[in-house]
Write a structure and sequence with these properties.
Layout lengths: L1 H4 L16 E4 L4 H8 L6 E4 L2 H11 L7 E4 L2 H9 L6 E2 L5 H7 L6 E7 L5 H8 L3 E11 L7 H8 L4 E4 L2 H11 L1 H4 L3 E5 L1 H11 L4 E3 L4 H20 L1
Parallel strand pairs: 2-3, 2-5, 3-4, 5-6, 7-8, 8-9
Antiparallel strand pairs: 1-6
Helix pairs in contact: 3-4, 5-6, 8-10
């Protein structure tokens, strides 16, 4: 991703990724398994991440999915197809709010299989549209155990580092790992509006927002940040 997302001519020092989110399978997934077994052909299953697809596949344990599958974007759709599930609907933009607005409502129920930290925007949109919603935890999202953060702390202490956040949970995990003071000094790039909103709330910074997690979109967002820095230096 780093090489393909690098804006042409940009003086970026790429560092290794800092995992800020850890996905954990459920110790006991009987609630998820029961929810999947109870699905009918008039219902719809909504999954918003690759981790969610993995959890659903584990819970199905080889049984067929008895209803239609809707996913948030192409990465989740690809994970579903690789696992042998065929999505019937993919949102036009990989964003939960867009999925909520575009999803063709089934005659039955919508089952949301998501993280224990999933936000309430998607179910709220679906309820406003008149959908019957059931939510079930498919996996857990945690801040990973702190490792040697000396290199990251050194980079952040220099000031002006660009940090790309792929999710709202990653913003929370980043702050928890490096602390409020170092986190506040980054120039943030957000993958989507939900992550951008969390950056504004937690870091009190206005992020550059990538329209999608695709490398070219991220590159354009990074270029905007670099352009703002260059403009500021010329003033």
């Amino acid at each position: 991703m780093a090489s393909s997302a690098r804006p042409r001519g940009a003086p970026i020092r790429w560092r290794s990724q800092l995992p800020c989110v850890a996905v954990r399978p459920l110790a006991d997934d009987h609630v998820l398994r029961r929810a999947l077994r109870e699905l009918r052909g008039t219902d719809a299953l909504v999954v918003t991440s690759r981790a969610g697809i993995d959890a659903v596949v584990r819970a199905l344990a080889g049984a067929p999915l008895p209803t239609s599958l809707a996913v948030v974007g192409p990465a989740t759709a690809a994970a579903a197809r690789q696992a042998g599930l065929v999505p019937s609907f993919v949102a036009s933009r990989p964003d939960g709010a867009m999925l909520g607005r575009e999803l063709p409502l089934p005659r039955g129920m919508v089952l949301l299989a998501r993280s224990d930290r999933a936000g309430d925007e998607l179910p709220a949109i679906l309820r406003r549209r008149g959908a019957e919603i059931r939510e079930v935890v498919a996996y857990r999202t945690e801040t990973p155990t702190a490792r040697d953060l000396s290199a990251a702390r050194t980079l952040l202490a220099d000031g002006g580092a660009i940090a790309c956040f792929a999710s709202a949970s990653a913003v929370d995990g980043f702050i928890e790992l490096v602390g409020d003071d170092l986190a506040a000094g980054v120039r943030p790039v957000a993958f989507g509006p939900k992550t951008a909103a969390r950056i504004r709330a937690r870091l009190r910074r206005e992020p550059a927002v990538a329209a999608s997690p695709e490398p070219r979109a991220v590159a354009r967002a990074i270029a905007r940040v670099l352009g703002e820095v260059a403009d500021g230096a010329r003033r």
